[in-house]
Design goal:
alpha/beta; globular; 230 residues; six-stranded mixed sheet
Length: 230
């Protein structure tokens, strides 16, 4: 199988001279189809920066990222936007839901940007809502949902466009233990049932324990990359 994500010689420096911060240092990484991998490490280790590089949200100082076999360098801004819409799902710590839209409307929004017809948007959003265990809550706005429910909406929104990979940055950070474990179980089930590929930046031991692959980062470098039977 070919990797879904390939990083070669990836480096990112913020600032110049004595103020320069080397967030990533010559990172090589392959993410394979069906991986559920965690990026772990202390604050400042480079986890979020690496996710941003893979998600085409920022550009490396040097090196190359490819997603689905397509190098990101040289793609126009509009092309990168299209790639994010079609190939990459995002789950953020703060949910990033639109407060005036219902759960279903938040999920449909990505499909609307893709130009999917209204009837198909509705059907796919309802299917995603059911899959994340929120059937019957599709008309609720985020303010009427718990943190765990909002994060499930965020997962459904990330998945509804059928992306190549889902990138999650500290997805359990704002959740209590019960909701965090339920979210971990949800991602594992989606991985087992549909082969959904996840790359998760986290400090959460509960997430690490349930991942198939554990990637440890220190000072902008990959310090350890190990697979488990979890």
């Amino acid at each position: 199988m070919d990797p879904i994500v390939t990083c070669r010689g990836l480096s990112k420096t913020f600032g110049k001279g004595e103020l320069a911060v080397h967030a990533l240092r010559d990172v090589d990484l392959d993410i394979m189809p069906g991986d559920i991998a965690t990026l772990a490490g202390p604050s400042g280790s480079g986890k979020t920066t690496l996710l941003n590089m893979i998600g085409a949200l920022d550009e490396p100082t040097s090196g190359e990222v490819s997603v689905g076999g397509q190098p990101l360098s040289g793609i126009s801004r509009s092309g990168l936007s299209d790639l994010r819409l079609s190939k990459i799902g995002f789950v953020f710590q703060s949910y990033n839901l639109i407060p005036v839209l219902s759960a279903r409307e938040n999920i449909e929004f990505v499909l609307q940007l893709q130009g999917v017809s209204g009837s198909e948007r509705h059907d796919r959003a309802m299917e995603a809502i059911k899959e994340v265990g929120l059937a019957g809550m599709e008309d609720r706005r985020p303010g009427k949902m718990s943190g765990g429910q909002q994060q499930r909406v965020a997962v459904a929104r990330a998945l509804v466009s059928r992306p190549t990979i889902v990138l999650a940055d500290e997805p359990t950070a704002n959740l209590d233990s019960k909701n965090a474990l339920e979210l971990v179980d949800l991602m594992r089930n989606l991985n087992r049932e549909h082969g959904t590929t996840f790359l998760i930046g986290t400090h959460d031991v509960r997430v690490m324990e349930h991942s198939m692959r554990h990637i440890e980062m220190v000072d902008g470098r990959i310090d350890n990359d190990a697979r488990s039977s979890a």
